[in-house]
């Protein structure tokens, strides 16, 4: 094993680059803008330049780089080929091969961002000590990742762990971002939580602290629930019920050791975790009710950690 | 690799013993009764005697046996420990270790019967040519198995692939065999199909061929549907809808290459497979709609095949 490696998380706005010791220690991280001009054709070149510059500045030879792990906000096949990534303007192409050409570093692996986060959290975050981990990322949307025996399960179409698109309501009439209806993302994303709050506030004149907040957000809902606001507590229960039920379905398929809950919404902390767990135990198959639940701890760095872990295994 | 191996499928009534070449060819199979007296303490001894007798008759030395794979109708941890198997009277114990002692053969592995069937079908049945397979077994109950990269995923509590206990109805009032409500097994098992047929026949005077059959069974429902009986066709559509929906949920978690449909109910053939697929495509996340569907082909031998495959890998 060489001494260093890169873990790179490509997002729609910025690229986070992590420079790691192969022991797993993050030595330094920085961001560069994600240039989406020209169909995203500049992104990988920008990354290669930034990597080269860093190595030159530190006087480290490429021979001392174990590899580069990269995650992207879209489905990835065979640790290598991105299968359309609308956020970046990308169609279907072999990202790993392109990065090999641009950097001269041969050990390059690519995965989906939610999968990378799951692997990162297993390795050095909320899922530490486990090898079979399901991560659910609650942000603007809902993503997920499945780690089995310490490795990402990507899926035949790169869609394993797409937990946000499990259909959990048969009666929903509004469409999910993907076009179908009744998906987890419609209820448990930050957007979905605000939608539910708006619906409940509009449906009656019930008093609620939420009527006083300057900006209705998922954070405001959890904050008010923690202060005992009844309507907010009902929304939290609704979200926890949807997620607990989702986890009960996942358990019948994959039966993980631990569910790690991450993403911006998870900053709500124990109130969210405990509500999910309570509903999970109610819905889950009896054999699985002992599954653990944990909060993610790596925040926005989870992707970098998971990305680099791929090339260290 | 030695020349021979055993694949043994322990059921509630009979034990099926398969004697294989390690190339994968089944040379001979036979059955012995499952003696459940004395808390099932005689079962493994009976198996060891039968194995010894066969080897003696054929003049084959134990040194020439690669291993013994065994599947049981209950959850199994770490390819070895049965975690309660009510059907056989067993509590928690290390079946692999016991069989090593009884036979003197050291390479012994144990798994759940539905998981073994999934592995067997991947290897030499309906899932041939694939490495990521989900099998659903439709019998008196509904079982399932998940194979990833050619290996069984057993799950942290031995409950991975318990697809029959996914909760797919929020409104069901009757209890599943496991005590909870709204599970796949309540709709797609042979028992569930007969229940649905009885409910529909009792609910009205609608004419149906089913009113004339001597014995109302899942087979009768599919047979009448194939003859164009409208009420039977509605039941088939109902079952296909429940299973297609279930597969759509599984795809968001594991995204397999193929779903293999087995068990007695699957003898209905293409009418069942096509109905499941039709509903799957309607419900599934867009990326996964291309998943394949196939009928199981090994019948009751699938368990023996999967069991022996474990010790050949």
TrEMBL record, chains A, B:
GO MF terms, alphabetically ordered: ATP binding; glucokinase activity
GO terms for biological process, alphabetical: glycolytic process
Ribosomal protein keyword on record: no
Superkingdom, natural source: Bacteria
Keyword terms, alphabetized: ATP-binding, Kinase, Nucleotide-binding, Transferase
Enzyme Commission identifier(s): 2.7.1.2
Gene3D superfamilies: 3.30.420.40
An annotated GO cellular component: cytoplasm
PANTHER family: BIFUNCTIONAL UDP-N-ACETYLGLUCOSAMINE 2-EPIMERASE_N-ACETYLMANNOSAMINE KINASE, ROK (REPRESSOR, ORF, KINASE) FAMILY
Family note: Belongs to the ROK (NagC/XylR) family.
Name the UniProt record assigns to this protein: Glucokinase
Species this chain originates from: Eubacterium cellulosolvens (strain ATCC 43171 / JCM 9499 / 6)
């Amino acid at each position: 094993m060489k001494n260093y490696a890169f873990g790179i998380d490509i997002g729609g706005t910025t690229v986070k680059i992590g420079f790691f010791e192969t022991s797993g220690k993050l030595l330094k991280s920085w961001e560069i803008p994600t240039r989406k001009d020209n169909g995203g054709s500049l992104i990988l070149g920008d990354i290669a330049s930034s990597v080269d510059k860093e190595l030159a500045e530190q006087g480290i030879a490429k021979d001392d780089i174990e590899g580069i792990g990269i995650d992207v906000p879209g489905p990835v096949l065979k640790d290598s080929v991105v299968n359309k990534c609308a956020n970046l303007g990308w169609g279907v192409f072999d990202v790993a091969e392109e990065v090999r050409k641009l950097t001269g570093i041969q050990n390059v692996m690519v995965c989906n961002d939610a999968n990378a986060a799951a692997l990162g959290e297993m390795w050095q975050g909320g899922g530490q000590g486990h090898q079979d981990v399901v991560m659910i990322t609650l942000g603007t949307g809902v993503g997920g990742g499945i780690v089995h025996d310490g490795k990402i399960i990507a899926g035949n179409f790169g869609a394993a762990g797409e937990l946000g698109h499990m259909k959990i309501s048969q009666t929903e009439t509004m469409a999910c971002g993907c076009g179908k209806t009744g998906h987890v993302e419609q209820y448990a994303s930050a957007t979905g939580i605000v939608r539910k709050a708006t619906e409940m506030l509009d449906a009656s004149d019930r008093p609620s602290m939420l009527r006083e907040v300057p900006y209705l957000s998922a954070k405001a809902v959890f904050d008010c629930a923690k202060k005992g606001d009844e309507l907010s507590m009902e929304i939290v229960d609704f979200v926890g019920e949807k997620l607990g039920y989702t986890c009960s379905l996942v358990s019948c398929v994959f039966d993980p050791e631990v569910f790690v809950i991450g993403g911006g919404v998870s900053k709500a902390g124990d109130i969210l975790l405990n509500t999910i767990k309570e509903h999970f135990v109610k819905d889950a198959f009896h054999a699985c009710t002992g599954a653990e639940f944990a909060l993610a701890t790596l925040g926005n760095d989870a992707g970098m950690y998971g990305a680099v872990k791929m090339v260290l295994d």
